[in-house]
Structure formats: structure tokens, C-alpha cells
Amino acid sequence: MPFVVVHMWDGRSVEQKRELAKAITDAMVEHAGARPDALHVAIQEYPKENWARAGVLGSDRSDV
After folding, report:
1. pTM
2. How confident is the model over 3-18, as a mean pLDDT?
């Protein structure tokens, strides 16, 4: 049972997440031999103020 976890900032629409889950499933079937009915995709979203890179919160970055 493959389990794929996606961590990303919040803000995507339900349709974007739907398309992402489908694309991940298709890639796992094609490249990893996964069965689509056994594959799980979990999307975990974080507010920008709860994620930091190089010691700087996403909410404080100007390059995102």
C-alpha cells in the first residue's frame, strides 16, 4: 500500500488538489508499478507563518 504525503503551503483550490492527487496517482502507477486502488495520497497544508526556510518564516519572505 503506497502512501504519498505532500506538504505545502495552504491556498490551493479543491480543483488544484484534485488534479494533483490524480497526477501523483498516475505517476506512481506508471513509474512505481502501484495499483491506483491501493495508493493513498495525503495533502497536508500549512499556513505560511508555520513554515520556515533558512530561518525565515514563509510569511516574512519576499521571494514566495
Report:
1. 0.87
2. 97
